[in-house]
Amino acid sequence: MKMQRESSISDNRFIPIKEMNIIASSSVGYFPQTTPEINSLKRRTKDTPKYYSDDITGTGWTPLEMKTLTPHDLDHYRTKSKLTDLIQKFKRVPFFHDSDQCANKGAADNALKLLCQMDEKLLPKVAVDEDGEIIFAWNVEERNIVLTFEENLWHFFEKEGSNPPNYYDEESYVNGEIPNFVWEKIPTK
Amino acid sequence: MELPRPHFENPPINEVAVCVVFKKIDGFQAVHFGEFWTKIRRHFPKTQDVAPLDHVSTAGGNGVEIQISAKPPLPRVWFEGISRHELIQLQDDRFIFNWRKLEDGLYPRFEEVFNNFKKYWDLFVQYISESGLGNISITQYELTYINIINLKKTPLTVIDLANVFNGNALIGHKDCFLPSPSGFNWQTFYPFPDNQGSLNINAISGLSQENKSIVARLDMVARGTPQEKENIEAGLEEWFNMAHLWIVNGFVAITTENAQRELWGRVE
To answer: Which residues of B, range 196-255, sit inside 8 Å of A by Cβ?
Structure first.
């Protein structure tokens, strides 16, 4: 026995929830360009973002996160984009007048990997030091945080008010990135 | 009237899917996926089972279908190409050839994608015939282009994204009661001439998953049913060529000339 209801035009034009097929990314089930960054994004996003993918091609190859973009959001993305460009530039252009040294490529890539995930985090001040390491710094009220990226190691410094500072020095990345407890110390927007 | 064939040096295409939907083949079983695979395995060495796709009518809506059967449902099977650009999807009522853009940025043009689809579709039709499963009865054609529109700089407002599209009344202006939108999702349907189906265009703003940049996704889906023609093969090619020209010309119509030249390198 087979029953089928043909859709009429009026059925499909004005039922956005059904037609948009807003589904969680995991139900797409296929991330062909899965990278560590994407894995981190999935792990670090508290609420799984909603992705538009009405799967018209059956692949899930072009997921789009449905997000309304306020002027505040756009400011954030614009700044993030500038910082990304800056770090990329550090990799290819010497940053001191009397030196031809560029930023360490691995350090810069590690910094970019973290920056890519910072949708809900306060964006850092970014600098490069004389060894080619990338430095992210935050100064929020009485709290100072400095995160330094090397190719294979990271360093973290935190000082809040008159409390003694916290140091994590020459730590290794976990699966290519900083561990979650450090991520959670980065101030949110 | 012959439609123009505009050309872009750097089109924003992310995916193309060429799809044929047909009546369920009586007698098609799980073993037939494997047998067909042996014919294409050299070029499509990896497989994966996924859930079957629902039917979508030419008007764009999903048909609701309830089936009661003694047989367990068959999956949709992915045959993944060596280059990772290509994928064949097969289920008991549908054959899809997918192409996607990768880091190499290559886009082989529609003609090449279609020729590759045709090569493997013909193999499938031949296999079904040789296996004694009868003839394939096509019920729908579908050609899909998914574009990702990424501005050169992060947009100042969502309107910067919207301004890539031509003459959309939803864009706010200074005398308008409504403020600037913080997102958009526009869906429109355009009928093809001579009852050949329709073109469904859907433009959505959002964030790309890959690098969280602000983008618009422009889906262009042509759907149509086969016309009564003596030569089914010629009818198939004719329909897909028509659909491709509609998608390209529809893209030109729905986007601004400035965006076409500045972002995608339109060539006369």
So the answer is: 204-215, 217, 219, 221
Best residue in A68, A69, A88, A117 to probe B by mutation, most B CBs within 10 Å? A69
Using one digit for the tens of pLDDT, what is the confidence trace for A116-151?
888 889 999 999 988 899 999 999 988 999 999 998
- Which residues lie across from B96 on neighbouring strands? B19, B89
Say which residues have a Cβ less than 8 Å from residue B23's Cβ, sequence separation at least 6.
B93, B136, B137, B139
> Which SS3 state, helix, strand or coil, does residue B27 take?
coil
Task: For residues B205 and A77, give the distance between their C-alpha atoms in angstroms, rounded to a whole number.
Answer: 14
Write the residue in B65, B206, B212 that is nearest to A52 by C-beta.
Answer: B206
Alpha helices of chain A — where are they, by DSSP H? 9-13, 16-20, 25-28, 36-44, 71-92, 105-116, 180-185
Whether B40 has a pLDDT exceeding 50, the answer reads: yes
Cβ contact (<8 Å) for A25 and B209?
A: yes
In this prediction, residue B112 carries a pLDDT of 93
State both tokens at A66.
């449905």
Torsion of CA A80, A83, A89, A91, to 10 degrees: -100
Helix axes B232-254, B109-130, angle to 10 degrees: 150
| pLDDT of res. A64 | 82
Residue in this structure with the two tokens 């039922």, named with its chain if needed: A15
ipTM above 0.85, yes or no: no
On chain A, the residues whose CB falls within 8 A of the CB of B67 are 2
Structure tokens at B151: 């501005």
Task: Return the percentage of chain B with pLDDT > 90, whole number.
Answer: 52
Q: Which H or E element spans position B137?
A: none
CB contact under 8 A, B209 and A69: no
Residues 6+ apart with CB under 8 A from B160: B151
pLDDT digits 0-9 by tens, A19-29: 323 222 222 22
Give the residue from A152, A25, A20 showing the smallest Cα distance to B210: A25
B 143-172 → A contacts, CB under 8 A: 144, 146, 148, 153-158
- How far is A112 from B211, CA to CA, in rounded Å? 10
**Among B148, B187, B207, beta carbon nearest to A62:** B148
